[in-house]
Amino acid sequence: MSSRERILGRVRRALADTAGDDVPYERAVPRDYLREHGDRSASQTVDLLAENLADYRAVVHRTDGEGLAGLIAALLDKRGSASVLVPPGLDPSWLARTAVTRVADRAESTPHELDEVDSVVTACAVAIAETGTIVLDGSHDQGRRRITLVPDHHICVVRVPSQVVSSVPQGLERLDPARPLTWISGPSATSDIELDRVEGVHGPRTLEVILVSGD
User: Fold this and answer.
1) Domains held by the chain: number
2) Tell me: the pLDDT tens digits for 39-77?
3) Burial environment of residue 58 by CB neighbours within 10 A (0 to 12, 13 to 18, 19 or more)
4) Dihedral of CA 84/214/172/56: which sign?
5) How far apart, in Å, are the Cα atoms of 174 and each of 16, 132, 177, 196, 210?
6) What's the gap between Cα 15 and its chain centre?
7) N or C: which end of the chain has fewer CB within 10 A?
């Protein structure tokens, strides 16, 4: 008998004389909490997202579809990036204005190879205004989780207002829990016992979020 079987056996014996729960799981916990705080228009929700992203020290930019490629090129140039990681399903028009070397998202890439890449550009799954959070779900235009955690500079494109929701409950409704979800609230940061902030420990040191209007 394995350790797992022994533990499960003890659990079954402990629960043998316990009455069954007649309340279905979906009704066991009251979920009458507010789905969002306040009554905001779509533009106000986007403004709140921008405000909270900036509060987390993300750099927020705004543009429209026509200006997106030029803005990405300018950000890569300002950063001095010589290479950029590209998810397989990223819209090629987003990088049409830059000559920076593209690096494909490959399963065999080592952490060292990813660390040598200067920047990564991705889309997102959803953005949550009240918490200033960007969520990635590993879709083709976002790539695997590690390509957004190893490079030091992440440019993330959010389509507004279609990808922006007010609250976490609204965001969860749009996400598939079976997918590899990455929740990002600003650039990676941690603090020691004396509250000295250090950025870039668990992910990119610089997060730039582009809010693209017209979608």
Assistant:
1) 1
2) 899 999 999 999 999 999 999 999 999 999 999 999 999
3) buried
4) positive
5) 39, 16, 10, 36, 20
6) 40
7) N
Q: Per DSSP, what are the bridge partners of residue 83?
A: 101
This model's pTM is above 0.70: yes
Provide the residue range defining the domain that includes 124. Answer: 41-213
Tell me the pLDDT tens digit for each residue of 178-201.
999 999 998 766 766 666 666 656
Residue 121 domain-assigned?
yes
- Whether residue 139 lies inside any domain: the answer is yes
Evaluate if residue 10 carries a pLDDT over 70.
Answer: yes
- pLDDT of 215 above 80: no
Query: How many angstroms separate the CA atoms of 87 and 174, rounded?
Result: 21
Gap between the Cα atoms of 213 and 63, Å rounded = 6
Are 157 and 168 in contact by the 8 Å Cβ rule? The answer is: no
